[in-house]
DNA sequence: CGTCTGCTTGAGTCAGGTCAATTCTCGTGG
DNA sequence: CCACGAGAATTGACCTGACTCAAGCAGACG
């Protein structure tokens, strides 16, 4: 069923898509591809890349500094775009590495831009999706700039949970999480050692347990309160554009 | 001259605009408004806002935490959008405060989305502009996550200089800068006291002087090298879409 | 079985924060 | 013209959250 593709579900939350728009959207889904964990899809500085939509698995977008430090900007979960910004800017400002083995569908820029002129509402929907991604990056920025390590970790685990819940991969009880403590460190701007200490602290406080590839919310409300988690920036409440 | 409006110049860098597209774009420019420094235009959580294009002056976008801490996400300079994300998401995830007295032109969402259906290439251009803004936020995130205070400050002053140079308000010699050390602190995730110390350090190293409302690059190359400043993510090299 | 990747914990250090005091405008009212 | 107060910049003394270095452990895999 085409209507169940992650992209359709995502864009449909903003724009009520007509049959003809759906079929244009469907025609975008080109080749299905798979990539193995750890081998980069896109490298910082490359141009003329394709964009992808993540069908299964997790990926990470990151930037490397010259001195070898790494900052992970965001993780992508099923339904998310990979490399959309890279194609629009023509040159990628970041690298993308699969965290697990992943399946994606490839989209060519020309097709995407062509689709915009046939069905302008699609352009609006994509612009909305991009804004939503940007809001997530902004919240991440605030976390790193102004929250201490424990709050930052708590907020991050909650946000990831909320995103996964939207695509049916998590709940307020917890979720399966393939990230290592090293990946958490690079995402949160901490050292791996400190990530470990903070996780222990949150676990001993009875709020979350991160262990063996799964996140368990031991006390969701207390955790949300501790992290000042305000998920309004990721709300989806029905198509805004009829 | 309409062709000289900051928005037209900005979008024209990505999409070669036809006369009819230009006239649609022009029709978007509604009421001209002014706001005084320090009084917020948009507050976190508000909905049904208008978007604006900044014509003169500087503004800041920030988020407040419940405990009163503030993180400035970005500063806007002439030609930049204000609150575009807020209208697309329908509810603002951040507040906007003018740093100086500012002049803006108001744009109504309905008009903007309507314009997309008449001239889809405009939608592509706006999507491109949004991607460029996002790339800036991402670079800011990397700075806060992985650079120490001095590198962060150096990188920030260089990026601002490059942005100002694009709209004719700065050069490699320096630029007029209305920011206070408190604003810098909230933008860089530092304390105001430490901002002061870092500025002194950079000044005494002969790289930049931040003083009396102006930034002077005493040794641009040394500073760029010190900050690992790689401005490729903000390059503009001619219309990509003919 | 040895090696590798990921997790855990302790000890010591330091970048950047907090608190506090001082100076320097500059606008405002007497 | 001068006293005053508010905002901004500056500097010192001290403290602490997070880092680095180092060591040890456990499961996975060839």
From TrEMBL, chains A, B:
<dbReference type="InterPro" id="IPR036388">
    <property type="entry name" value="WH-like_DNA-bd_sf"/>
</dbReference>
<dbReference type="InterPro" id="IPR050397">
    <property type="entry name" value="Env_Response_Regulators"/>
</dbReference>
<protein>
    <submittedName>
        <fullName>Crp/Fnr family transcriptional regulator</fullName>
    </submittedName>
</protein>
<dbReference type="Pfam" id="PF00027">
    <property type="entry name" value="cNMP_binding"/>
</dbReference>
<dbReference type="Pfam" id="PF13545">
    <property type="entry name" value="HTH_Crp_2"/>
</dbReference>
<keyword id="KW-0238">DNA-binding</keyword>
<keyword id="KW-0805">Transcription regulation</keyword>
<dbReference type="InterPro" id="IPR012318">
    <property type="entry name" value="HTH_CRP"/>
</dbReference>
<dbReference type="InterPro" id="IPR036390">
    <property type="entry name" value="WH_DNA-bd_sf"/>
</dbReference>
<feature type="domain" description="HTH crp-type">
    <location>
        <begin position="147"/>
        <end position="221"/>
    </location>
</feature>
<dbReference type="InterPro" id="IPR018490">
    <property type="entry name" value="cNMP-bd_dom_sf"/>
</dbReference>
<dbReference type="InterPro" id="IPR014710">
    <property type="entry name" value="RmlC-like_jellyroll"/>
</dbReference>
<keyword id="KW-0804">Transcription</keyword>
<dbReference type="InterPro" id="IPR000595">
    <property type="entry name" value="cNMP-bd_dom"/>
</dbReference>
<feature type="domain" description="Cyclic nucleotide-binding">
    <location>
        <begin position="13"/>
        <end position="90"/>
    </location>
</feature>
